[in-house]
Design brief:
Number of strands: 12
Radius of gyration: 20 Å
Strand order of the largest sheet: 1-3-2-4-11-5-12
Number of helices: 16
Strand content: 15-25%
Order of helices and strands: HHEHEHHEHEHEEEHEHEHEEHHHHEHH
Helix content: 40-55%
Largest sheet: 7 strands, mixed
Shape: globular
Oligomer: single chain
């Protein structure tokens, strides 16, 4: 079979993942409202005449902008009398499906689901309109079995999902070590075990995995169980920055309701400014919202190191998204994607200019 045909076949498998994920977890669960979310300023008006704007995010600390923005009421304040509604997701494919169906309008999401969603729709379903976070991903290992990088060979290392952002990063890193792994089965010189983040700590405790390449707070949960950090992914990137969370919007909603999109982006910029000025209060707010969404807050020994490893930024770090896409191609998980037009940073740069902040770059991948 020609190489490009094999890649297309591989991508078809990856692109089909949303269908399986949807069967398992649907569109996610609605977050409960907190008093801060319900506050609408006296005399506030609806934006673009909308009754509501539907916002999606994950219950992960790498989605801290969304967690804090919800908890502290930044989104509702920016939207005036238009209600901010929220849905919490467990995986990127289900959030992309919700965006495609109109169940959400705007979402916080990782780079790989955004790339896959955009590519699968042939560039018609979404735009990345802003950045949110960098970092917060680590390779953590059982120190009794793995004491150095060379010891990873022959071991069982978990990632959250076939073809997800961390899965691609691990496969790329394995290749750079000179080891071979079949991207679909995960079998090879290292066994890549696709395991939901919710069960990864139990898998580590049972000994069924020897380590994991995972986002926060899963990495710090494993460390609390005795694992050690072998590698912080930030150390592999220039300036130690790489995109872990973007903001996406459906192209239809962006075209029809730019004022509402601008309001959400203003709330995101305001939230990030508050987070960086008030790190301890922000950490507490994010944890409070995690408790509301999941029913359980993180313990300090997990929360503190996890939060410290994440940088909150408005910059989408577009050049690193393009690099991550190329890593997926090299790993055999993706045809060479056409990402021209995936970004539209016009409204974000307008918001940043009004706030007296520097504009951000789309690395030549902006909508024309």
């Amino acid at each position: 079979m020609p190489a490009n045909s094999a890649l297309r076949r591989t991508f078809a498998v990856v692109a089909a993942l949303p269908l399986f994920s949807l069967a398992a977890c649907g569109y996610g669960s609605d977050a409960k409202e907190t008093p801060a979310q319900q506050k609408v300023a006296a005399g506030a008006e609806k934006i673009d005449g909308l009754d509501s704007v539907k916002i999606g995010y994950f219950g992960n600390l790498t989605h801290g902008t969304a967690l804090v923005g919800v908890q502290k009421g930044f989104f509702q304040k920016a939207l005036g009398a238009t209600e901010a509604k929220y849905q919490v997701f467990n995986a990127g494919p289900s959030e992309i499906e919700a965006l495609n169906s109109g169940s959400i309008d705007i979402g916080w999401i990782g780079p790989s689901p955004a790339i896959n969603g955009y590519t699968k729709s042939k560039g018609t379903n979404l735009r990345i309109i802003g950045g949110s976070a960098s970092g917060g991903v680590k390779l953590v290992v059982n120190p009794d079995k793995i004491k150095s990088v060379k010891d990873v060979e022959g071991k069982r290392i978990a990632t959250p999902q076939l073809g997800n952002t961390q899965d691609v990063a691990l496969l790329n890193w394995i290749a750079e070590q000179g080891w071979k792994v079949d991207p679909q089965s995960g079998k090879g010189d290292v066994s890549v075990v696709r395991t939901d983040n919710k069960v990864t700590p139990d898998a580590y405790k049972s000994g069924s995995i020897d380590g994991a390449w995972v986002p926060e707070p899963t990495a710090s949960k494993l460390v609390a169980e005795g694992a050690k950090v072998l590698l912080d992914e930030a150390d592999l990137w220039p300036d130690k920055k790489f995109v872990i969370t973007n903001i996406i919007v459906s192209q239809k909603f962006l075209k029809e309701h730019p004022k509402a999109v601008e309001a959400v982006l203003k709330a995101s910029v305001d939230t990030n400014k508050w987070i960086n000025a008030n790190p301890d209060a922000a950490k507490k707010a994010a944890n409070t919202q995690l408790g509301i969404d999941s029913g359980k807050e993180l313990k300090p020994e997990v929360l503190d190191p996890a939060w410290k490893s994440i940088q909150f930024t408005n910059d989408p770090l577009a050049a690193t998204l393009n690099t991550e896409a190329q890593h997926a191609v090299k790993a055999g998980l993706l045809d060479d994607p056409q990402l021209d037009g995936i970004y539209d940073l016009t409204l974000l740069n307008k918001v940043l200019a009004a706030a007296g902040e520097s504009s951000v770059d789309d690395a030549g991948l902006g909508a024309k």
